[in-house]
Amino acid sequence: MNQPKIDTSPKVSDEVRKTTCYMCACRCGINVHMKAGKIAYIEGNRDHPVNKGVLCAKGSAGIMQVNAPSRLRAPLKRVGPRGAGQFEEISWDEALQIATSWLAPLRETAPEKLAFFTGRDQSQSFTGWWAQQFGTPNFAAHGGFCSVNMAAAGIYTMGGAFWEFGQPDWDHSKLFVIFGVAEDHDSNPIKMGIGKLKARGARVVGVNPIRTGYNAVADDWYGITPGTDGLLILSLVHLLLKAGRVDLDYLARWTNAPVLVNCTAGHADYGMLLRDSEGREMVIDRTTGQPAPFTQKGLRPDLAASHQQDGITYRPVFHLMAERYLDDSYAPEAVAEKTGISASRIRALAAEIARVAFDEAITLDQPWTDFRGETHAKMVGRPVSFHAMRGISAHSNGFQTARALHMLQILLGTVETPGGFRFKPPYPKPATAHPKPHCGVTPGAPLDGPHLGYVQGPEDLCLRPDGSPARIDKAYTWENPMSAHGLMHMVISNAHAGDPYKIDTLFMYMANMSWNSSMNSGGVMQMLTDTDENGDYVIPRIIYSDAYSSEMVAYADLILPDTTYLERHDCISLLDRPICEADAAADAIRWPVVTPDRDVRGFQSVLLDLGHRLGLPGMVAPDGSPAYRDYADYIVNHQRKPGIGPLAGWRTGGDGRGAPNPDQLQNYIDNGGFWLAHVPAEASYFKPWNADYQNWAVGMGFYDSPQPYLFQLYVEPLRKFQRAAEGHGPHQPPDHLRQRIAETLDPLPIWYPPFSDAQVDTDAFPIHALTQRPMAMYHSWGSQNAWLRQIHGMNPLYLPTNLWQSHGFGAGDWARVTSPHGEITVPVAHMGALNPNTIWTWNAIGKRRGAWALDEKAPEATQGFLLNHLIHELLPPKGDGLRWANSDPVTGQAAWFDLRVQIEKTTPPAHSLPAHPTQGAPVPQGPRDVAWKVGQ
Amino acid sequence: MTQLPTTTTRKLGLVIDLDTCVGCHACVISCKGWNTENYGAPLADEDAYGANPVGSFLNRVHSFEVTPADDAPPSLVHFPKSCLHCDNAPCVTVCPTGASYKRVEDGIVLVNESACIGCGLCAWACPYGARELDPREKVMKKCTLCVDRIYNENLPEEDRVPACVRTCPAGARHFGDLGDSESAVSQLVAQRGGFDLMPEMGTQPVNKYLPPRPKDQLQETDILAPFLAPVTDTSQGFLGWLDRALSALPGAKE
C-alpha cells in the first residue's frame, strides 16, 4: 500500500494554563492549551476534584465564548430610550464617576434605595460583603428564582442538601433514585457517577415527567405528574414504616426522632421540643427511663417512650411521624391517581428501596468515634442514594417536598453512611450554625450584618418597626419566612410598584431579567421602561454588568462591561459555594489566561474601585488609597476573620487558617488552579456526629468549635411560625396569612396541591408545562456560541402521544399555548416518553431579536421561545382583593413548574409569538464564517 | 477505485455504550475542538451567527425514541455516530483519487486532504452518513480516531486516546484494539453483547455499540423484591412493634 506519511506526534501547544471553567456553575478544572498566545484547545484537568479530566460540551466550547462577537467592548452610557439599545461608549473613569454620583448620595441618606442583585454570580461572599459595607439590605443572588427550596429544606432538615452541599456515595451506592433531575449544576459529576454505577451494574431509578438525559438511561422510569413528588415520597414513607423497614438505631442515635415534643394541646408551648436549661433537646434514655439531653455520654435515646412532666405530656417525634404517615391517605391506592403512578409500581419501588437498604447493607472496616464518646468498630451503610433538583423544588409545595425526600433518606439511615448521601465540606452545617438574616440600615454606615441566613423563628424576620418588609424583595416576611436566598424574581415588580417602598438605583450583575431570568418577561420589560406622571422612569436608574450583549443590556442606563471567564481572576471559595468533594475540602481560582482585547474589566475589580470611590469601610486604606488594587489583591489579602480568607490553600502557616501569603495565587496556578485537603479516613462518614470530622472541620476554619447536631425530622422553627399563626407570642402575622402559615409551615413534611391548582380552572387548563435545561447548553449564554447553537438552535414544544393525537398534530405544526396569564405560539414535536398530562421545552434557547450578536433571522429568535411569557410572578386574583405570590409559602421560591396551560393547533405564523421588536445592540452582528485555528 | 488493505495489523476503534450515554454532546464538541485545531483543515462553521448555521462535525449524537411492543413506556436512546472505520469500507473503494484510505497498521480510515477533490462520492457511499464536506475548504472531513493524539509523544501516555473518549463524562466511550480478543474493549463487547451497526450492509464496521439494558423491569412481584409485609395495620400496633424492635437493638435494656 502507498499510504501518505502523516505526523502522528504534532506539537499540541506551547503551554497549558490550568484554570476553572465558567460555562456553567459546575466549575470544572480545565487545561487551556495555548499556541502563540492564543487559545488553541480546552480539555478537562485530570487532577481536578470536580471533573477528574472529563469535560462537557459547554466546557469544550469555551473557546467560542472567548471569541464571541457578542462580547461587550467598552463602558456604555444609554443615549436613547430604555429598551432601545442605543448607547455611547465612555471611558471607565466617566462610567465610575457616574456610578459614584448616583450611589454616594443614596448611601448617605437612604442606602436601601440601592437594590443590588447578582444573577449567576460565583463571588457572592464578595458581592454580599460589598453590599453590606454599602449598607443596603437589598442584596441577593438568583437562588430564590432557582432552587432555594432544595437548599433551605436541606439545611433546616439535615445541615445540607444536594449539589454543592453533598453527593451520592458513587463508589458504594447500589441503587440511585433521582427526583426531578434534568441537567443541572452538578453537570459532570452526575454523569461520571451514573457511569460508575452502571459500570458495576447498580440500578438507577428516574422519577420525572420527562424521560430525557439521566432519566433516559435510568433502568426504571416513573413518569410522575408534576407537583406530586411529595405525595409519592410520603407514600413510600407510609409503606416503609408500615413494614417496619426503617433504621431504628440510626433514627434513635442521630436524629430528633426520639426528642420529646409537648403534646398537650392548648398549652402555650404545644408542639415545641423539650429542652434543658442549656437549650439542648431532651430524649428519654432507654437505659434509665429518664429524660436526658441528647448529647449525654452513653445515652440510648428511646424512640418509643412518652413522658409526663409538670402536667404536660411529651411524646417522641417518632410517635407523631408514625401517626401521620401510617394514615391510609398515604397508601399507594390513595395517591395513585394524583401522582399518575400505579399503586403496584409504588409498592415495587418501596420494596426495592427497602431490599437494597437493608438486605444489601454494606460495612466498611473503619473505626470511628461519635460525639457522645462512643467508638464504633465499623461503618455500616445503607447503599441507597437519592438526588433531586428543580423538578421538585420549583413548585409552591417544593420546600415540603424536598423535606419529605430528606425524611425518606433519614428513615432509611442512608445520609452520611456508606453507599448513601454524603456531605461535602464545609457541610454538614445545621441551620443554627448559619448566620441569621440582617436588615438593620444606618445611613452612611454598613448594614448590621450579613443579608442572608436562616431564621429560627418569627423574631428573626426582616420587618420594619411598622411590620412592613425591610427588603425590596420581601424576603424573610410572613409571606415567605425562610427565604434564605432572597427573591430576585420579585425585585423589579416590587420596585415598579413601590411596594414596600420605592428605590432609586437597580444594580444587577449577570442577571438577564428582561428575558429568561424572570417570570412574565414581557411584563418586566414594561416595568423597566415605564414612566411616571412626570415622564421619569418609575425605576429611576439601572446599572448592569455583563460580558455579553444580552437582552438585559438594552434596559440599563449604564453598562459596566465584564471580562469573559478566561480573562479574569476569580475565587471559588469555601466562604461561598465551594467545589469540595465528600472526601476533600477544595477551592479554586480563575486567572487571566489571556488578556482582554477590549476596554473591559472584571466586575469584582470594578466593584472594589467603586467601593473605594464611595469610601466603603474595608475598601479604603488608612492613607485614603484603595485597600485592594484589584480583585486578585482582595482574594489574597482580604480576611473575613483573622486567618480566614477567600482561599484556604497555601496560607502563611498552613492550610485553612493562616495569615495572607503574597505568593498564594502563584501557588494555586502551580498546582493546576485549585487546592485540596483530604478528609481523614476515620472522619469520612457520619460527619455530623463524628468527633474526628468535627475536629478536622474546626482546624480547617469551617466553624470555631465542634458542632454536632441531630437531623431535624421535626423542624421546630416551622412550628414557631405555626404557633404565631395560632395567635401565640409577640410577633404576629397579618390575619390574611394566618391560615396559610398554619397549614403549610408544618414541622413534619406534608404534601398539598400546588397553589395555582386551586386558583386556576384545571378543566380549562388541564396540561402541565415544564422546561428543562439542555446538557449541551444550560446557561442562557450558550446561544451566541457558534458550536453549541448548532446543537440547540431552536426549541420545539414536546407533546405526549395522547395530546399529539387528540389535537391532530403532525410534523411541522404549530400550537397556540395559553395560560391564565398569557399566550405563546410555537412549533411542536411529538415525544412518547412523557407523562400524559405534561408538555415541555428546552429552557432559554429562545432569544430576542437583536441580542447576542445574532442575525435577526436566527432560529433562536424566529422559532425559539420562552415559557416565561406564560408565567406570572403573582397568582391570578382570587377575589379577596389581594394578589398572592406565585411562590413557595415557606421560602418564596418562584413556582414556575406549577404552570398550567391549554393548547390548540394553529396556522404557523412567520415566527414564534410573542415577537418582541428587534432591540438595538452595542455590538455588530458576528462574522459570517468561523474557522478558529490558531496554530500553523 | 481505491484499494483496501486485505488485513490490518490492528483494528483500532470505539466501543460506545448506549446504556450509559446520556446524550450530553460532550464528545461532539471536544472532537470539534481538537480537530479544528489539529489534523487537516479546521472544521469550519458557515453562517455561524446567522439564520442557518452549518458547520462540519466528525461526530454527532442523534436521539431516538423506542416504543416497546408491550405496554411498557417508551424510552429514549442517545446514539453517538461517527466513522466506524469499517474493514470493508465503501467510502475508500469509491474514492476516485486515493484520498480516502484505510491504514494498514491500525485500520483507521483517513482522508488525505491534499488529494481530496471534494467530489462527495465517499459521503454518498457511506451508509452511516459519517462523512461531511467542510463548508469552507470543500474537502471531506471524517473521524480520524484522533490519529494525531493516540500516538502523540507530546501528550502524556494516559491522554493518548481520542478526544471524545478522554472527555466523555459518563464513561460511555471506550477505545482500543478490536482485533485483539484479549483487549479490554473486546472483552466488553463479549460481556455486553456488543453489536455491529447495520451488519446487512456488509461494511464490517470496527466500532461496536453496547445495547441498552432491559428497562422498566421493577415489578412488585420481583423475586428479589418481595412484597413489603406490614408489621401492623394500626398506629397502636405500630408502637407495639416499635417497642419490640427497639428491645432487639444492640445495647438495649435487657
What can be said about this structure in brief?
Chain A has 936 residues and is an alpha/beta fold. Helices cover 25% and strands 16% of the residues of chain A.
Provide structural commentary.
The complex is a heterodimer of chains A (936) and B (254). Chain A has 936 residues and is an alpha/beta fold. Helix content of chain A is 25%, strand content 16%. The longest helix of chain A has 18 residues, at 92-109. Chain B has helices at residues 26-37, 90-93, 121-125, 147-150, 163-167, 184-192, 235-247, and strands spanning 12-17, 45-46, 54-55, 59-66, 75-82, 100-102, 109-111, 132-133, 140-141, 173-177, 208-210. A three-stranded mixed sheet of chain B has the order 10-1-11. A two-stranded antiparallel sheet of chain B has the order 2-3. In chain B, strands 4-5 form a two-stranded antiparallel ribbon. The termini of chain B are far apart. Classes of the chains: A alpha/beta (936), B alpha+beta (254).
Topology readout:
The complex is a heterodimer of chains A (936) and B (254).
Chain A: E1 15-20, E2 29-35, E3 38-44, H1 57-60, H2 62-66, E4 76-78, E5 87-89, H3 92-109, E6 114-118, H4 124-134, E7 139-140, H5 143-146, H6 148-158, E8 166-168, E9 175-179, H7 187-199, E10 203-207, H8 213-217, E11 220-222, H9 229-242, H10 248-254, E12 260-262, E13 282-284, E14 291-293, E15 307-309, E16 312-316, H11 317-325, H12 332-339, H13 343-359, E17 362-364, E18 368-369, E19 375-376, E20 379-381, E21 384-388, H14 390-393, H15 398-412, E22 421-423, H16 488-497, E23 505-509, H17 521-529, E24 541-546, E25 558-561, E26 570-572, E27 584-590, H18 603-613, H19 631-637, H20 664-670, E28 674-678, H21 691-700, H22 716-725, H23 735-744, H24 755-759, E29 767-772, E30 797-799, H25 801-806, E31 814-818, E32 823-830, E33 838-842, H26 859-862, E34 900-906
Helix pairs in contact in A: 3-18, 4-18, 6-15, 9-12, 9-13, 9-15, 12-13, 22-23
Chain B: E1 12-17, H1 26-37, E2 45-46, E3 54-55, E4 59-66, E5 75-82, H2 90-93, E6 100-102, E7 109-111, H3 121-125, E8 132-133, E9 140-141, H4 147-150, H5 163-167, E10 173-177, H6 184-192, E11 208-210, H7 235-247
Parallel strand pairs in B: 1-11
Antiparallel strand pairs in B: 1-10, 2-3, 4-5, 6-7, 8-9
